[in-house]
Amino acid sequence: MTTTIRARGPRELLAYVPFRLGYRPQDSAVLVSLRAPRGRVGLVARVDLDDLADLEHGPQVARTLVAHLCSDGAARAVLVVYADADLRAGGAPAARERAAVEHWTDAAEGVLGTPEVWVVTATGYHAADCPDAACCPAGGRSLEDLESTEVGAHMVLAGATVATSRAHATSIPVLDAVDRRRASRAAARSRARREAALATQDLEALAAWRAEGLVAWREATGLVERHRRAAEAGVDGTRGVAAVLPAVLLGRLEAALESVPVRDAVLLSFVAGNEELASLTAAAVAGERVETGTASVLAGIVDPEVGLPPEPGRARCARDVLEAVAGAGRRGAQAPALTLLALLAWWDGDGVVATDRLAAALAADRGYRLALLVESALEAGLAPGWARSPGRGAR
Q1: Is the distance from CB of 62 to CB of 103 less than 8 angstroms?
Q2: CA 153, 159, 161, 167: dihedral to nearest 10 degrees?
Q3: What is the value of pTM for the model shown?
Q4: Cα dihedral 51, 53, 55, 57 sign
Q5: Cis amide linkage into residue 37, ω under 30° from 0
Q6: Bridge partners of 80?
Q7: pLDDT digits (tens, 9 = 90+) for 304-343
Q8: Distance CA 221, CA 146 (A)
């Protein structure tokens, strides 16, 4: 489902930001792009408050943020400062916050108009320059105002949640030690079969091994989908997703995703209707048909002319399986699964999770090519195709 969010006032906008990020920001500066002509919410970018306030580097951080928002089609922008300081107070307590606002104002004023700045503390919220005690009393308006908004109710009904911190929002559950050993042994057995086929140049056995990897992926996503349907129907809703995925299956998937053809086949399966193409890709069958089909699928993710948002159910199943693989496998050796998770999050417009998953993938393998491509998109502030398509709503 695609949700169009428009800025119907600061209260609705401030209620939306934590849902958009997936957690409650702390010591952060959050920039919200408001697109013409009706103030539709676009890009939401978060930076550490210390980075934006830094006397040496802060102005460049602000200029980079302005460039990203302009690329997103922003007509104006709102800065939300999350810190326990009242910007209307003088003296040292709010010096950092005022420096951050000053850097943003200098960078944005000539491009995005007079900046609108709000401050959210642990106890209240207020406009940064509002002197009216009736409007913004000392300590700010009550945060309870942000818990009873139209946009908040809509996000809750849509299944959105807000974690208490970024760490909680991006954590991946880890399998217990016994199941992790089972997964590790299964992965080792699978790798041994692949290495044997490579050593003897048995291309038929290698193709069969890759095909089995894709079958394992389809089996895992099928199990997750059935579990979710049962949970939605009120049956077997107490077990977590990882509990329905056998450790042996997760180990086989860890090894399978190390093969680029299998990984690419899994990527193609993110878009419905590509079962045959995914099978050909896993088998490493070369040909114009496969190349054309792959280009078409990727265009559906990155091209603003034809780009579509991910199907929620399909993306959720894929994410759950990949997180289970990462949680069951060897720590520091999950670049394929983590990169696919980063790509899924980027495609869904979730920059927080995309950045976290990508950092973990690159920590595992700094030279992983697909991760480097996703890194280029994130560093350039490039949104997925559907988000850059004219008339699309914010996710």
Answers
A1: yes
A2: -160
A3: 0.74
A4: positive
A5: yes
A6: 30, 118
A7: 777 888 898 899 999 999 999 999 988 888 999 999 999 9
A8: 37
